[in-house]
Design goal:
Blueprint: H1 3-24, E1 28-29, E2 36-37, H2 40-63, H3 71-90, E3 95-100, E4 106-111, H4 115-142, H5 145-170, H6 172-180, H7 199-220, H8 223-239, H9 242-263, H10 268-296, H11 299-331, H12 342-347, E5 351-354, E6 359-362, H13 369-398, H14 404-420, H15 434-452
Antiparallel strand pairs: 1-2, 3-4, 5-6
Helix pairs in contact: 1-2, 1-4, 2-4, 3-4, 3-13, 4-15, 5-7, 5-15, 7-8, 7-9, 7-14, 7-15, 8-9, 9-14, 11-13, 13-14, 13-15, 14-15
Length: 454
């Protein structure tokens, strides 16, 4: 069989492993934000396809001397999986939890976990560990990585554009409502989301498209790739996902500054013109916004809504959630945590006051990636993730001169997501979920690939 045929087989197997692995890792059947735990038959089908894809990928490439397993990494991921499995299997269904609710009353509930649910959660964490192995040890060894990144980027952009177009057709009326309430307190109720996900998850998916555009621009220096990233950013704004908006601004600004500095000598006049144009456009937009808000009398309401009602108040909600996370972990084990998905389902039983809306709600996530790791796998899981972050950053800095654009983009993306993890639960380091798994593939795998080059 010719090399190109083996390459195609590898791409197909990686796609299958990635799609089923990242989708299974959350353990839910997600559609339109209405999540339910995967059933046993669904788990069996998805996990069988996942394991077959992994087995084929590993066996084929070991036989062709294309893949050398990192046994240390496999051992660490294996230990995490065993630790999580023990947590799930040892959990006694009907265990009672007591907490003080938002009404200052003491509440008690018994949490039930069936054998089928235990199986599903264990397989979901196996998918998480499998995807970590795919990103950290397999992808960069078995394919032409630059071609692979190119394919992933184009696929991500096309997928995002399709989702955006579907959103235009399915929720076109909401865009009109969005702009109608652009400067009042109703804006947050008019945010755009996908029929496949909530607004925050939709924003995270669009972030993949934004990052893909920047990566392609760093390789080919075509202006339309930056235009694609700008288009993705505009659609992220419609979700009103503050964390993703701030991250997008940071990544775009950092890349433009990097581009200006590294190409200044070669394109001095062009860079100065671009700087003046971009700076002028931003200044005009900001001043125009202030003038418009002042003229229409919306300036106080706008900033109160954006920075206080949906800023300070929602942060207070997060503090309340973090207190409940600490309470839950204290009742389990600080070293090994509660267990993947089990932790989130227990947390969901705790009532939380959303200080931004005044409503009593329930949350599945810790709203902190670091606390989420502790909740699922304890201090041990968090230390493994922190060690991974430190190691990958070390490799990126050490090999920076080999491929400056790729290393810079990976570094700023990791810094952005590390900051993101202080207030949100998503993570690209040992990722769960497609929206973070693909970013992990585009960010961490290139560092490992470049580090192998002599």
């Amino acid at each position: 069989m010719q090399e190109k045929h083996w390459t195609i087989i590898n791409y197909i197997l990686i796609a299958l492993a990635g799609v089923f692995g990242f989708y299974m890792s959350n353990g839910v059947f997600a559609f339109g934000g209405n999540n339910r735990l995967l059933s046993v038959p669904e788990t069996l089908i998805a996990s069988s396809l996942l394991l077959l894809a992994f087995a084929g990928l590993i066996i084929i490439n070991i036989m062709r001397n294309k893949y050398r397993p990192n046994w240390v990494l496999i051992g660490i991921l294996g230990c995490l999986f065993i630790m999580n499995m023990i947590n799930i299997l040892c959990f006694r269904s009907g265990t009672t939890f007591t907490f003080t609710g938002v009404d200052n009353e003491v509440h008690t509930f018994a949490f039930e976990l069936s054998e089928a649910e235990k199986f599903t959660t264990i397989m979901a964490f196996l998918a998480t560990m499998s995807c970590a192995l795919l990103v950290l040890d397999i992808c960069y060894q078995v394919v032409d990585f630059k071609q692979f990144i190119k394919i992933v980027c184009f696929t991500a952009i096309v997928s995002c554009v399709v989702l955006i177009i579907i959103s235009y057709f399915m929720q076109g009326y909401k865009y009109f409502i969005f702009y109608k309430h652009l400067f009042d307190s109703e804006l947050y109720h008019c945010s755009i989301q996908s029929i496949f996900a909530t607004k925050n998850a939709y924003a995270a998916v669009l972030m993949i498209g934004l990052l893909a555009g920047i990566i392609l621009h760093s390789q080919y220096r075509k202006w339309w790739y930056l235009a694609i990233s700008g288009y993705m950013f505009i659609n992220i704004l419609h979700t009103i996902s503050k964390a993703m908006i701030i991250m997008a601004i940071f990544i775009i600004a950092a890349y433009l500054i990097f581009l200006f500095i590294t190409t200044y000598k070669e394109h001095k006049k062009m860079n100065l013109i671009a700087l003046a144009a971009i700076g002028g456009a931003i200044l005009t937009a900001v001043l125009g916004l202030f003038i418009f808000l002042a003229a229409t009398g919306h300036i106080n309401g706008f900033f109160r809504t954006i920075f206080y009602s949906k800023g300070v108040d929602t942060f207070q909600t997060r503090i309340y959630i973090w207190e409940k996370v600490i309470d839950i972990v204290s009742k389990f084990n600080w070293a090994t945590g509660c267990g993947h998905i089990l932790f989130s389902n227990v947390l969901h039983q705790y009532n939380v006051l959303d200080t931004g809306t005044g409503e009593v709600v329930a949350r599945y996530s810790a709203h902190s990636g670091y606390l989420q790791y502790i909740g699922e796998g304890g201090i041990i899981y968090l230390l493994v993730v922190l060690a991974l972050i430190a190691f990958v950053i070390y490799l990126a800095i050490k090999n920076y001169k080999k491929d400056k654009p790729a290393m810079f983009i990976s570094l700023i993306t990791m810094v952005a997501y590390m900051a993101f993890m202080f207030i949100e639960s998503g993570s690209i380091f040992i990722a769960s979920g497609m929206e973070f798994g693909v970013v992990s593939m585009l960010t961490i795998s290139p560092i490992l690939f470049v580090s192998r080059q002599k």
